[in-house]
Amino acid sequence: MLPAIEIRNLGKQYMLTNAPPYVALRDVISESVKNIFSKKKNPGNSFWALQDITLAIEPGERIGIIGRNGAGKSTLLKIISRITPPTTGEVIIRGRVGSLLEVGTGFHPELTGRENIYLNGSILGLKKTVIARQLDAIIDFSGVEIFIDTPLKHYSSGMQLRLAFSVAAHLEPEILLIDEVLAVGDMEFQKKCLGKMQEVSQQHGRTILFVSHNLKAINDICDKAVLLNNGKMMIYDTVEKVINTYITSLDTGTNERELISATSKNIYFSRINSFDTNRKNKYVFSSGETVGIAITVQNNDWSGAFTIGFGLNSFSKGRILISHKECRVMQTKLSKEFVVWLPTEDLTPNSYSVDISLLDGRKETIDLVTDALGFEIALANTKFEGLGYDYGIISKELTWQSTE
Amino acid sequence: MEKLTTRIQPPLHFSLGLRELWHYRELFYFFSWRDIKVKYKQTYLGIVWALLQPLGMMMIFTLLFSKSVKIPSGPIPHYPVFVLSGVIVWNLFNSSVSHAAESMIQNANIIKKIYFPRLIIPCSSVLVAFFDFLMAFLIFITLCVGYQQTILWNAILFFPAGILLSLLSAFGLGTFLSALNVKYRDFRYTVPFLLQVLFFASQVIYPLPFIQQSWLKNILAFNPLNGAIELFRAPLTNTVDMNIVIASLGSCVLLTILGLFYFRKTEAYFADIA
Q1: What ipTM does the predicted assembly reach?
Q2: Which of A5, A356, B83, B181 is deepest in the core (most CB within 10 A)?
Q3: For residue B30, which residues of chain A lie inside 8 Å, CB to CB?
């Protein structure tokens, strides 16, 4: 049987400009006028978001795509779903594709829930007759029956999401492409959707391509996974192997990382590093040791106060805690280091990752780096040695009582 | 069962992709349906709005140009009938072009998340404008009855011909502008100006023979709106200047080719720059 998705030498190149992604005609004109006089051509930088990806996915396989921010995961998905064309290579797809790069694409606040089901469904490629046939099932699954003929603007965001997921869960393509969409919404409903998708893929042999930061979800849904790094494919193997490779790759060498994804912004994170209380660079800590994480903020041109958000995640179990630091106005053209100290007595031996975010005065996100840093708390010499594999997240002594 | 095979490659060849467009016809319907529905849901006046605007324009023009400046209305005896016939054809063109030009930017969030032939978006803007036109057309017919204006039997041919010419030119210009708008974000500010120039270059408020200079008349003939209005008024005037129609048709075809070609050429990268 021919592969469902065949990717050959796929590459995508983006031109890097300092300007915003779109151009203004006045700039083009003034640039070309300048160029007449200077006779100097602006060469323009380019970078490859994806390079030399070759992959064959068999029908019925469920593949997870993982990698750091900017590794090319979403670009790959965008090419396969035909939103953006590749620069080199080709993709051959055998079967109807349903792509879920966002839930509720095209939802309109003025239309009722029922009308939005039709609109969203047809944007996702469903035929009108199919939607009509599935309508009751979709409404039922969403759990918003009473409001189905109310305009969407009166829905809570949670209700909108449930409705959107319902439509998505009832798509019946042969190949399903899913981007991080499951990262939002309440946990219960997410599980319901994941369950539905799993059911669909197992019963009908659907091919699923799933991009996520949530390694737990990837582990649950997929059989195999691809690890991307800087636009290149590092490994394509079973889920366990790829996740292990990914976790260890986060911890190579010193943990210091230059963050360059947002250098065009007014203010952004430029570096992150982890060390112990003696400021010795480190990425594997013993239980109880205090972890120091240094975050460098580069201020190009930001004249307001800002807040740094810190999120600690367990690789398999999601967000553990968050912490925020309000910062006063910082001098421009300068960088500043903030250190957050994390005591680990309460954490179990595990792999952890750190998300950092930069918020403005109104708590709107300016910069966000997920999985900015990974570190590990070693198993050796802890009370957990020899107690299986799953120690949970919190290390706590409980009192036990027994009746005689 | 034979599976649908899609091959994704860097864009090399130019094609109109008509077959694909046909495949997605339902989405085209849904986009138009959404825009019409939302438009009439948001205003309490609803459909009345679509009627009030051309009527208002007719009254102002009649007051200003017929009563004060004394612009003749050609072979049509009543100036209000004359001007409304021009206004509704102009409005069809005007709202098609301005909505189509904005359409790609307005739907950028959808374009970035899902694939479908992008041409559907400006097309459905044109269809929405056509819906408004149908409303206004009813008013026009009512007005003709009121003024006892005779409409010749050949209206069956000439009305659709004029509407089609206006629609097609609007489609060509609209798709061209919509693609330009995605690429050059400041281009949108020139659209209202461009449309205003076109309005005064169209025989909406004056009959084309009213222009004295023949060189100017020759240039104006290439404005596709003049051909469209000429055709649309033919059942009322019983004359049609074929030179105007042919010149207009020429620029209409040119606009359509330009719009389609430029749009198809740039659409692959819309998601990267929108």
Answers
A1: 0.82
A2: B83
A3: 118-119, 122-123
